[in-house]
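Comment thread on ticket #2218

A.B. wrote:
> Attaching the input chain for the structure job we discussed in standup.
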Amino acid sequence: MNGISAHRPGADQAMPDDLSQDPAAVASRDDDRVPRLVWLIAAVFTAVELAVSGLYGFQQDELYFLVASRHLAFGYVDQPPLAVLLARTTDIFGTNPTAIRILPALAAGVIIVIAARLAALFGAGRTGRVLAALGMACAPVLMGACHIGNTTPYDLLAWAVVLLCVCTALLRDRPRWWLGAGAAAGIGLENEYLIATLLGALVVGLLVTSAHRRVLATPWPWLGGLIALVIWAPNLAWQFANGWPQATMASALHQQNTSTVDYIAGLPEQLIYTGILGVPLVIAGFGRLYRDRQLRFLAVAATLVVLYVLAWVPGKIYYSDGMLPAVIAAGSVSAERWLARDSRDRRLRSRHGLVAVGVVLTALVVVPQALPAVPIADVHKLPPDKSVNDGIGWPQLVADVAAQNAALTKEGHAPTAVYTGAYAEAGALLLYGGPDHLPPVVSAHNSFYTWGPGAASDATVLVVDALDQVRPYFASCRQLAVFNPPDQVQNDWNNIPIGVCTGPSASWTALWPHLRHYD
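C.D. wrote:
> Ran it. Output below, let me know if you need it in another format.
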């Protein structure tokens, strides 16, 4: 034992009379087990994610990760290696959208269960634990994030596991759980650097609140930190050896996500991303975290994370949602007590109905926008959602590029390379373009830059979405076509120019440093 008293719900404040007199309620709060209904909610969520996972195509990051998985390394200019390594596991099931989305869907299920377990640690009974699971399952950010095989699902999972381990260590006086927190943090750092924000916020939260400050004088948190550092070391070494490209990426993200609109919409959109059930639970959760001195360190940590996102990258509002399981769990404790009062007053039965309405509205309104749940021909009728709509149109883009390649070849001007402005387009051409016998596909975007042009010739270059970028380095460039996704779909890949450039001013090797761009 580290000398910190174990926290049990009600240690710092009395329970309401209507709950404290119920032996079953008290017993349920001494038992941290997750109800079977929570497991069912997690299973249904995962099943729905997988059921719709193959209805559209790959999202842009997935295309990039699939190509990167053929260039395994300890790091990349825009991320650590874990998500790319996990993308390589799709080889087991074949290269298709469902395969790369199996692990993200499972990660979402685990996050839902963790939210319920956190609610138990915070003092919730069975109803509160189920509410926490429902709140997470109905959050649009979880639906959308865990539909895609990129870094975000694993980042959300790593945050959830760290929070669970830290809260168990502190609230149940089990210091060895700090080692689990360190392992989860280290694995998280091998997936996405954003989790460093959580670790810093937790340290500050412990320092500025009195309930658990003394834990920092024990070896356990520092042993956990050492474990995290050891696991992270290979990627740190790669960053050092390659000139810390992540610093360049961080600067680029800041510049691209700090418009006036981003700042104005940052906080409201953070709330909207939590969903119909999530908004009241999050508001109640912050209130409870601040009121309970045993949980106040989490309130400080969550506030710091939100402020960091609002100040540095307000355009990436989902960066703060790793705190969501803890905040929703805290809100579920308050919601459970609110519903308990309802059960004793028939005049207030509508409170239970509000929860049911929230679930139904989520199914009818949120799911069609956060998941590929409607026919592609009807997608244009919905508000554009990048994470969903960006999966539409890649085979058609490849077909258009292949058609231009065939036409130029027939004219006697066969392209010697295809250059793309973005990693997504390069990934699509490499993934789908094999049967069309395209020339070598190259790009200088993010990690594609580090892989270089190889042996590709720049004598006649078919250019996709990069005519303005390469025009200064060629004697002649002309546009051949403009690509748009099918069925009037609006996404990041509308109005893509396809052209051809000839007469390079220098070799690819000489031009390459001038073409590099990170974002």
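A.B. wrote:
> Thanks. Noting for the ticket: The first strand starts at residue 417 and ends at 420.
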